Amino acid sequence: TRNDAILELAKLDFSILQALYCEELRTLTLWWKELQLQDHLSFARDRMVEMHFWMLGVLFEPQYSYGRIVLTKFFTFISIFDDIYDSYSTLEESRLLTMAMERWDEQAAEHLPGYMKFFYSKVLTTMKVIAKDLDSQGNKHADYVKKLVS
To answer: 76-110 pLDDT, tens per residue?
Structure first.
């Protein structure tokens, strides 16, 4: 015996969640294209959709939409860091990037190679926007954003 009303509600809920997840992916895709990282970091893997799918496993409830978006951005950057450190940069370039991340300011980019300067500036800009958004939402932990990345 099945209850058709419950089945109909489940289908509606599925459609609503699917629309929400598609809207999140649209937002993230626009952010990703705006970064233009593929133009400057051709060696980096484009794993943004995969990261969003992973975040759906972490924060699946609809009210955590902003958290999914932010975590997807974090882990997309972490994936690119992984590509830089493991596949592309020299040991000296890796050390320079690590020191820049520890300093966390625009002046630290002066010693980085061109492709790293571009990436580093995008990371700083994105994290500042996220911290500002969290602060405007009244989140008391907005100052921890840079600690999550560095």
So the answer is: 999 998 888 888 888 988 898 988 888 888 888 88
Q: Token match 């911290």: residue? A: 131
For 1-60, how does the pLDDT look when each residue is reduced to its tens digit (9 = 90+)? 789 999 999 999 999 999 999 999 999 999 999 988 888 888 888 889 999 999 999 998
Question: Domains (ranges, CATH) in the chain?
Answer: 4-149 (1.10.600.10)
Closest CA to 113 of 139, 90, 136, 81: 90
Q: Are 68 and 41 in contact (CB under 8 A)?
A: no
Which of 87, 88, 97 is closest to 149 using CA atoms? 97
Helices (H), 1-150: 4-35, 37-40, 48-58, 65-83, 91-103, 114-136, 145-149
Give the pTM.
0.85
Distance CA 6, CA 76 (A): 38
Tell me the one-letter amino acid at 3: N
For residue 86, give every residue at least 6 positions away whose Cβ sits within 8 Å of its Cβ, in sequence order, or none. none
Contacts of 21 (CB under 8 A, 6+ apart): 52, 56
